[in-house]
């Protein structure tokens, strides 16, 4: 096995970790050669994760890899991006590429910040490999956690290596959620177990500085192989003079031995001078690094008076940290803090709050000290926690929710302000996607009796929480309960109607959705609650589409977009362009739809509205599928799923995106991928998430039909045959569905249902005389129903007038089967091939990489030419997430790990000449 220590001399000896060091060295060597990737170190507290982190930093330096490292602290949670920004600030060698994080130019919009950070990291990695290290990741702040979930996959092809170390916690944190996400296929995990007996013996000898006998080993063996406990035990024995040297070998004497970790720390503590003991005990109330001046103020002395005590404590209790002084381990700090009696501990926290406030520390830190300072500090703590929650809500909703929960925990049960705090907490928990917590907390307060406005506001928060989670039935229930109150403001009523309209749409109550949307528009405009009016209008656009009224769909979407443009603010943040693009796609205005999507996506990134990101991916994937650009559509939907899974406020959108991926996979003939996507989709739906039938049932019908089980597909499609007369949305979503459903019914011998499809399609076409897609769908269904070549030829003619190439190919195939058009079948195959539905198309010049799709081929050549992912996205007019998805597929198909390998492969295949044109 490779021994890293043979090549590099580590400053700290390491025992029993040869395999782990070898894994770290191998990963870093790959990064030095140009590969990216991520490692996580796991294991219980004190098992040696931080020691391995320090070893990794030394190994990286030996390989000429730049290092940006930081330990996260519990109070990081209150300062968005402090963890990751702090690591980059400490980058060695120093670079100015990250100075903007600290010069005041960083903007509040989280996506703008993350995109800018990504560009800076790409620029740095283009010059030198980089290792980014976060120790105690469980305390990482929420915005850093979001950035990590964005940047780890985005930079996978760049020489950036991530290393995260963390330990389990009883409370859920953004850092722990990120570690769990990384362990789901986004990183390689190194799990640290306890040390074996030979390693414990080696560690014991190193701590003592001499050989040790069986009396030492017997005691050390009782520490369960935990390096921290072994070290503290031996230091305690040495401090109490129970560890003696005899002829160069250490042995244990005496009968009163430490029986626990707390005891071992206590033994070390009591052997310090009285002044140093007090300094260390007092400073144990700081759960972050602290300076000498803070330590002096807390103990009532001048800085010069504590220098000697700090020097003494640095031997066994304290250690130097980049931000000041820190305890050797947080478990040591906790053990020492437990030696303080309650009145003394509370007074120290009161003094620490004053010090933190004077130093301009985050509000959470001050509030936490106040909260632990006794009853007199509770009111101030709650006020500060509420203010801190409001400050970080826009960029860190989960952190804001945690702060409000802390405030609730600090409040007495019957405090007069408790109801208001609960109402705020429910809204923040909803915004953070923590639906079950929001509902449980909200229901408890609702039972207590509230005034109408407060109760309706609380019900709105619960409705929004359920809507975000895809639990539309519950969202309808809560919104309706809120609207039952007569004595509420018009602004609140408009917002309740708007959320109710969208939830009703997804439980298939189209009439109710349209009525609620109309009320949101009317009341919202009259009361200047324009955001509710816009959101209500977009719901009405969806209803009009579902009913097959294209003109109405477009009219409502345009009105919502115009209203948002006129009034800006929260109305603009509803992003009605999402639904306008959907309407333009349904009416075959593909170029306009693409412009709206591109403009809206940029605006969303500027405003930092994270919840919209998966929606932009979804609707653009639908547009690309309709155009027949299946490779790009697949990458877009894949990026959408990845984005949805990163954001608690948009997680439910993974369901329709997975349905889209399954549909695309069927069109491309990849039934294994389609099955996998459908499996993931059903797993999410089993949690209570609902979605439109067109998004979840239709892909399954197509999959079953492609598998040769048309009878089962016909059975699963039963709901569409019943719904099409009043909800023909499927025929707008996929006009070729008219022919597919008709064919399935005829194959099953059910001519009545086939006729129902043809009749519904004709009704849709009659109601939308300007839609060539609707006319083509109607002619296609009628032609199959009656085996009518003329109708099928009409379908071909109508679809030729649209940009829907796959619908045209389906009509050509069916027309060619019943009439003499010898070129039509070949034309259909050419279209399918061009669209990526039937494998690569033969050409005069064979592609450089036959195993790649045409879209992937373009990305591969640009990346091989030295372009970053961001530059590639700009060149190809794609989103960055789409390029990231393409590149992951490219590396997987070609068996590569590094961009330099791709460049070398292109050079080898072209003999150093220029690659084929894009």
Describe the structure.
This protein is mainly α. 64% of the residues lie in helices and 5% in strands. Among the domains are: 4-191, P-loop containing nucleotide triphosphate hydrolases (Rossmann fold); 197-265; 717-836, no CATH class; 854-909, Arc Repressor Mutant, subunit A (Orthogonal Bundle). It has a 5-stranded parallel beta sheet with strand order 2-3-4-1-5, sandwiched between helices. A 3-stranded mixed beta sheet has the order 6-8-7. Strands 9-10 form a two-stranded antiparallel sheet. The chain is globular and about 105 Å long.
Based on the model shown, name its key terms.
globular, 3-stranded mixed beta sheet, 5% strand, single chain, 918 residues, 5-stranded parallel beta sheet, mainly alpha, 64% helix
The CATH H-level homologous superfamily of the domain at 4-191: P-loop containing nucleotide triphosphate hydrolases
Helix content: 55-70%
The shape is globular
| Structural class designation | mainly alpha
Main beta sheet: 5 strands, parallel
Q: Main sheet: which strands, in order across? A: 2-3-4-1-5
User: What is the count of DSSP helices, taking H or I runs of 4+ residues?
Assistant: 48
The CATH topology of the domain at 4-191 corresponds to Rossmann fold
Query: Could you say what the CATH architecture of the domain at 4-191 is?
Result: 3-Layer(aba) Sandwich
| Low-pLDDT segments | 1-7, 839-845
Strand content: 5-15%
Number of strands: 10
Distance between the termini: 45 Å
Multimerization state: single chain
Rg computed from alpha carbons, rounded to a whole number of angstroms = 32 Å
Mean pLDDT: 87
């Amino acid at each position: 096995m490779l021994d890293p220590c043979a090549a590099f001399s580590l400053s700290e000896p390491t025992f029993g970790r040869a395999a782990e060091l070898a894994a770290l060295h191998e990963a870093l060597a790959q990064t030095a050669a140009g590969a990216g990737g991520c490692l996580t170190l796991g294991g219980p507290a004190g098992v040696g994760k931080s020691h391995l982190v320090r070893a990794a930093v030394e190994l990286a330096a030996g390989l000429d890899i730049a290092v940006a490292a930081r330990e996260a602290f519990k109070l990081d949670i209150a300062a968005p991006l402090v963890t990751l920004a702090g690591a980059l600030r400490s980058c060695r060698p120093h670079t100015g590429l990250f100075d903007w994080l600290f010069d005041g130019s960083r903007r509040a919009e989280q996506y703008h910040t993350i995109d800018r950070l990504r560009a800076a990291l790409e620029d740095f990695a283009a010059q030198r490999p980089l290792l980014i290290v976060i120790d105690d990741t469980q305390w990482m702040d929420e915005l850093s956690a979001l950035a990590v979930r964005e940047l780890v996959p985005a930079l996978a092809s760049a020489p950036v290596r991530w290393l995260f170390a963390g330990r389990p916690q009883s409370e859920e944190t953004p850092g722990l959620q990120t570690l769990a996400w990384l362990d789901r296929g986004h990183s390689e995990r190194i799990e640290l177990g306890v040390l074996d007996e030979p390693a414990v013996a080696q560690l014991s000898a190193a701590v003592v500085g001499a050989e040790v006998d069986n009396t030492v080993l017997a005691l050390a063996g009782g520490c369960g192989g935990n390096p921290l406990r072994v070290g503290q035990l031996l230091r305690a024995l040495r401090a109490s003079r129970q560890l003696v040297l005899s002829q160069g070998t250490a042995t244990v004497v005496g009968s009163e031995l430490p029986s626990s970790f707390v005891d071992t720390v206590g033994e070390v503590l009591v052997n310090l001078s009285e002044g140093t003991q007090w300094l260390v005990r007092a400073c144990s109330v700081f759960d972050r690094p602290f300076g000498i001046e803070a330590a002096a103020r807390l103990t009532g002395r001048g800085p010069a008076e504590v220098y000697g005590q700090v020097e003494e404590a640095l031997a066994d209790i304290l250690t130097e940290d980049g931000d000041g002084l820190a305890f050797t381990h947080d478990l040591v700090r906790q053990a020492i803090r437990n030696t303080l009696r309650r009145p003394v501990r509370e007074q120290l926290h009161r003094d620490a709050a004053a010090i933190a406030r004077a130093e301009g520390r985050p509000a959470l830190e001050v509030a936490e000290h106040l909260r632990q300072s006794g009853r007199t500090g509770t009111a101030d703590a709650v006020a500060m926690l509420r203010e801190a929650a409001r400050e970080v809500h826009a960029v860190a909703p989960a952190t804001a929710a945690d702060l409000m929960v802390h405030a609730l925990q600090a409040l007495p049960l019957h405090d007069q302000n408790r109801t208001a705090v609960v109402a705020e907490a429910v809204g923040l928990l909803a915004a953070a996607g923590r639906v079950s917590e929001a509902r449980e907390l909200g229901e408890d307060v609702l039972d207590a009796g509230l005034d109408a406005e407060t109760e309706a506001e609380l019900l709105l928060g619960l409705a929004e929480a359920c809507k975000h989670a895809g639990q539309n039935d519950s969202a309808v229930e809560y919104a309706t309960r809120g609207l039952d109150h007569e004595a509420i403001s018009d602004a609140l009523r408009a917002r309740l109607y708007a959320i109710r309209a969208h939830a009703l749409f997804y439980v298939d109550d189209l009439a109710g959705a349209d009525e609620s949307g109309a009320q949101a528009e009317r009341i919202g405009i009259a009361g200047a609650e324009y955001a509710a009016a816009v959101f209500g209008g977009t719901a009405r656009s969806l209803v009009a589409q579902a009913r097959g009224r294209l003109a109405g769909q477009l009219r409502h979407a345009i009105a919502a977009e115009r209203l948002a443009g006129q009034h800006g603010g929260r109305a603009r943040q509803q992003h009605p362009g999402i639904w306008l693009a959907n309407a333009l796609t349904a009416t075959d205005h593909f170029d306009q739809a693409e412009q709206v999507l591109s403009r809206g996506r940029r605006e969303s990134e500027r405003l930092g509205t994270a919840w919209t990101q998966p929606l932009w991916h979804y609707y653009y994937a639908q547009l690309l599928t309709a155009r027949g650009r299946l490779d790009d559509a697949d990458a877009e939907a894949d990026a959408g799923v990845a984005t949805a899974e990163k954001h608690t406020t948009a997680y439910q959108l993974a369901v329709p995106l997975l349905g889209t991926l399954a549909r695309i996979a069927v069109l491309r003939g990849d039934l294994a991928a389609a099955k996998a996507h459908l499996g993931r989709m059903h797993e999410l739906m089993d949690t209570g998430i609902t979605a439109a039938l067109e998004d979840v049932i239709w892909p399954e019908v197509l999959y079953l039909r492609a598998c040769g089980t048309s009878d089962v597909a016909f059975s699963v499609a039963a709901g569409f045959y019943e719904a099409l007369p009043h909800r023909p949305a499927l025929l707008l979503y996929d006009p070729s569905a008219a022919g597919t459903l008709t064919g399935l019914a005829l194959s099953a011998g059910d001519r009545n249902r086939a006729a129902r499809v043809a009749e519904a399609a004709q009704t849709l076409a009659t109601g939308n005389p300007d839609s060539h897609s609707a006319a083509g769908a109607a002619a296609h269904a009628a032609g199959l129903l009656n085996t009518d070549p003329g109708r099928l030829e009409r379908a071909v003619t109508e679809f030729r007038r649209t940009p829907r190439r796959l619908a045209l190919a389906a009509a050509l195939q069916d027309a060619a089967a019943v009439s003499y058009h010898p070129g039509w079948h070949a034309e259909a195959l050419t279209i399918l091939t061009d669209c990526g539905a039937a494998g690569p198309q033969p050409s005069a010049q064979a592609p450089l990489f036959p195993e790649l799709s045409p879209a992937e081929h373009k990305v591969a050549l640009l990346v091989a030419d030295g372009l970053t992912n961001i530059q590639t996205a700009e060149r190809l007019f794609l989103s960055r997430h789409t390029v990231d998805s393409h590149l992951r597929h490219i590396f997987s198909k070609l068996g590569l790990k590094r961009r330099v390998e791709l460049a070398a492969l292109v050079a080898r295949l072209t003999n150093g000449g220029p690659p084929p044109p894009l």
